[in-house]
Amino acid sequence: MITIVIADDHPIFRDGIQRLLASQSDMAVLGAARDGVEALETTRRAQPQILLLDLKMAGMNGIQALQELHRSKSSVSVILLTAEINDLQMMEALRLGAKGVLMKDVDTAALLDGIRSVAAGERWIVNRRESSSGLQVGNGKRSVPSDLTKREMQIVAAVVACLSNRMIAEEFKISEDTVKHHLSNIFYKLNVSSRLELAVYALHHKLAGC
Amino acid sequence: MSKPTLGSAEAAFSIESFLNQPLRTERLIAAARVSLALVFLLALLIDPSEPAQYARLVLSLTLVYFVLSAGLLVWLKLHDHLPAALPIWVQASEMIWIAALSMFSNGPASPFLIAFIFTIFASAYRWRLKDTLLAGAVAVFLVLGEAIALLTRPGLGIELQGHFKLNRLLMRVFYLILTAGFAGLLSESQKRLSLSSMRVTDLLAGIDLKGRFSSTLQHVMQQVSSHFEVEDSVLWIEQVSSGRAFVFEVSRHGGEKGLSALWRESSPRMKEDLRFELNAPLLAQTLGASVVTTYLDPAHKGAVTLAFLQRYGVTSMIVAPVNVEDWRGKLLFLAPRLSSETRMELRSLKDILDHTLPAVFNVYLSRKLHARATAMERTRVARELHDGSIQSLISLGMQIDVIRKNSGGIGPELAADLERIQGLVRQEVLNLRALMTNLQTVEVDSADLVEFVAHLVEQWKRETGIEAGFYSQADEIFLPPRTCREIARIVQEALTNIRKHSGARQVAVRMLSSSERLELVIQDDGCGFGFQGRLDQQELRRHRKGPAILSERVRSIGGTLVIDSSLGARLEITIPYIAQKQTMAAQV
């Protein structure tokens, strides 16, 4: 049985997903919270396997709640369930140990599939299952991380830390064009197509101390 | 005396139309003339003129002069329109009349010579320097003519009498010349001042705080350009706060019909060229291999180089500073035609710009504030949709799903209905999300357009689960921010359409730029647009095929759209940089 706590500040949505999950024979909803603070309390009290955490909530938001769980080394698997998320928020969430990111308007089958996958120990990043080697994208052939140069490793770490190209350029005293060049090489070597994929890959492989 | 004519530029500013100034002028002169004639009449009644034999004649002539002057004043008061030739005829008749009066009252020593001074001042009041000098010259000619007639005593049957003294004649003639010179210069200066203030008024009157910023700018540049008979003018502005620079070009090749305006981002080369210090307008002209500069501030000598003029393909150019609030820039008038008084023209331009540019900047601020307020309101509505309606609908969909699965006993018809309702709810969520995306403000310019579109595609891919890739070979894009925003909107619109209607599983977005155009290709493997083959914009409109809103967006930025609907759908959008020019009509 997959035990779940739901944290969402929208009462109608909270009610809907609670009913949906409760209707599944292999899932049990242990509690529902209206904001981050309630989510932490309910999680501590109910010790669920999965915490479905909304990103935007009044009071303590999803990222702040995630930071708190990360700090307290909580064993709960957090899935961000959100209507909108940008790359930076997603990388930050993954860096803080979120196991999944699901969009609210995904169809119910995919939503349930995502929850079951995360409960089984996998990562689920926006409608996609992440295998042990990272996101299933491209042709699947990747170079090994050791192919990356020292500078490329530094840039990977900076990307995971959510720095923009300009900030990376300032950090390493290089031009933005050089940063873009390094990123192209990294994307090619690791066969990823975006900063997000790179961040997920780096986190998964603990690249550059991530 | 020739009728003073206004140049085309001056006509554009239409002094005459302003409160019917010539009629007012003529009425004032006529009133002064009546007073003068009355004083002459009274003086002659008290003390008749000499020589005594012509005293009655002079009195009669003065009486007629008074009656005619009074008649003219009444006529001018009763009429609202002044015949163009009337002032010239009045001036000429008056001078002949005064010559006759003075001829029979001691000639060059006549007290009526003062009336010549009146005609000179009247001329200065009506016209400008040249006309006043001409009036003075005619007066001098008549006085000298009388002196010669007095000396030679021609056999006209008239016995002229007078006390001729050469020293007095010379002094009076010189006095007339000086009066004409000073009055003419005063008149010229006053007329220029008036013209300059009229131009400023006219320019300011054309500035509409509620209007488009580019239309306002175009109006101002066009009006100032017309003064210098310039066909091409360029405004280069650098925003101090952001460091970004823009160029606005106005061209009126072929007259009003060919009027066009172009906003674009400044090239680095242009930035380098135009960053020099300048606080007053200057005129730079080539003379052989060197540049001659006419300037108001000596520090600007040599500010414009030959290479700079050559880059614009002209031999002369006015460069004026634009220093208002957050703007630092230059206004260039290519190949201007100036009168011989260049420095005065430059000073006049400085006055006009000093008064007009702050108003233009206010329009810019007003539009910016308006846009920001609109954006905030749209963002608020989008947030309401996002936080409210969309989530409620998603929840509704989930609950329908629960009912469907838990109600094993329901009939197939009800199950089908529930499935259909769930589909409708889901479709409505997608529609609202698309609406929400469209409501949100797109802030993008040429520097970050590629990155913006890449992010857009990546996010769309993530949200929809449809495989999508973005490929760019667009290194340098010089497009105005509005066009960049439209391009971003076009990509958004196309991706929304793909998600809603195409059933595609793979999408590719490509962006290529050259020195002449930007090409955007959006291709998917979906069901296409319901026709086979390639159709251009005109054919799409004729057959009522293709995405109408997207097509309108492309058209609004001067681009072309071709849709290939053979294997999936392929949208080819081309935006030629030159096609960014929008006609005046389209802008206003």
Structural class of chain A: alpha/beta
Strand count, sense and closure of the main sheet of chain B? 8 strands, antiparallel
CATH architecture field of the largest domain in chain A: 3-Layer(aba) Sandwich
Report the C-alpha radius of gyration of chain B, rounded. Answer: 38 Å
Task: Describe what this molecule looks like in 3D.
The complex is a heterodimer of chains A (210) and B (588). With 210 residues, chain A is an alpha/beta fold. Chain A has two domains: 2-131, Response regulator (Rossmann fold), CATH 3.40.50.2300; 145-209, Winged helix-like DNA-binding domain superfamily/Winged helix DNA-binding domain (Arc Repressor Mutant, subunit A, Orthogonal Bundle). Helix content of chain A is 47%, strand content 17%. Chain A has helices spanning 11-22, 36-46, 62-71, 87-95, 108-119, 150-160, 165-172, 176-190, 195-204, and strands at residues 2-7, 27-33, 50-53, 77-82, 100-103, 123-125, 128-131, 134-135. Chain A has an eight-stranded mixed sheet, sandwiched between helices. In chain A, β6 and β7 (128-131) form a beta hairpin. In chain A, α2 (36-46) packs parallel to α3, α6 (150-160) packs across α8 and α6 packs across α9. The radius of gyration of chain A is 18 Å and the shape is elongated. In chain A, 43% of the residues are buried. The model of chain A is unreliable at 131-143 (pLDDT under 50). By secondary structure, chain B is an alpha+beta fold. Chain B has three domains: 8-204, no CATH class; 211-357, GAF domain (Beta-Lactamase), CATH 3.30.450; 443-588, Histidine kinase-like ATPase, C-terminal domain (Heat Shock Protein 90, 2-Layer Sandwich), CATH 3.30.565.10. Chain B is 56% helix and 15% strand. Chain B has helices spanning 8-13, 21-46, 55-78, 86-103, 114-126, 129-152, 166-205, 213-227, 268-274, 306-311, 342-406, 412-439, 449-464, 481-502, 537-542, 548-556, 584-587, and strands at 232-239, 245-251, 260-265, 282-287, 290-295, 316-324, 327-334, 467-473, 506-513, 517-524, 534-536, 560-564, 569-576, 582-583. In chain B, the strands form two sheets. Chain B has an eight-stranded antiparallel sheet, with helices on both faces. In chain B, strands 8-9-10-13-12-11 form a six-stranded mixed sheet. In chain B, α14 runs antiparallel to α16 (548-556). The longest helix of chain B is centred in the middle third of the chain and has 65 residues, at 342-406. Mean pLDDT of chain B is 82; it is low at 1-16 and 579-588. Chains A and B meet through α1 of A and α11, α12 and α13 of B.
